[in-house]
Amino acid sequence: MVEAKPAVNYIRQPYFYDNWVEKQGIPVYRDYYIEDGRTVELGDWDARGHKAAFLQLAGLEGVSEARISEIAPGGRIAPVKFALEEVVYVLQGRGVATVWADGGEKHSFEWNAHALFRIPGNHWVEYSNMTGDVPVRLLQVNNLPVAMSTLQRPEHFFDVSVPTKSMVGGPEGDFFSDAQAIESDPSGRGQVRSYWVGNFFPDMRAWDKLVPFKGRGAGGTTVFVQFPGSELTAHMSVFPAKTYKKGHRHGPAYVLAIPAGEGFSVMWQEGKEKVYVPWHEGSIFVPPNRWFHQHFNVGETPGRYLAFHPLPQFTGFAAENLDRSSDQYEYHQEDPAIRAHFEAELKKRGLASEMPAEAYTNPDYKFENEKD
Which CATH number does the domain 17-156 belong to among 3.30.300.210, 2.60.120.10, 3.10.410.10, 1.25.40.10? Predict the structure, then answer.
């Protein structure tokens, strides 16, 4: 077993984005995970007038940016216009966001801890903290590293005057209205998925509009999130206490944040030693590109992880109809040390596994919610 260590040895040369980040004068975290985004140390970002930190976690690999911003009690973050769209998850606190395009109508909406929302590109946004005693912490995810690799001019991404039709307010409806459910079959194999499409999800800790996550085990459920008119997507998986999901792998830059639960994840390159990542509410981690990883709930309540996806070019799959059996370990195929570690963690807490014994012996075993 290998404990998580800072991932600082780049094989590649730094990307342009890496050098830009270093010049911002705030902390840059390069470990495998952040134990708690609500308490991790931030620095004064003089250019923006608030505290923040960049998360250059091992699995981001120059594809996506993740950063944490803080709004002081009763304070605000001055308006900034960012050329790229951004997805925001509220780690802590309560506040208001005001969004508008140049010359367009301003639109404000309130949010609380565990809210998820999207800010459209080339729009101004101002954040305010509605409480006088608790700092707000925001986790923000976007595609700036890739964009800066194609246009190495930082000034083109911030506060630039480019004519933009407003996406908020006006006769076309509320950009941040309630999400709507749709059904589609992205695989073309008759495996219909239910997606929720919208730009504002009020509370991912309490979200209960879930469907079975068939094939991933543990009797888990999920919600797939699409942001309309965007290539950004996300999903949240929920799975029962004292169970764990099957090991699987995909491409880089899937940013995982924990809305609820207590557990750990194990990540490994095929044939290499394993890295164990403990998590609880507020934890953040990113499995590296094509590393297998597996999620374990060692608490007494359902565990939740919210995954921000990279752009579709980086999902790590060659095609939707590809046989992906090589990208997932079934329970009967897994390293026995993984199960032993899970059971040892439960024992520390006076708990016992609720994994069915047949799952380890029957390759065709299905949990109740996986059965047709």
Answer: 2.60.120.10
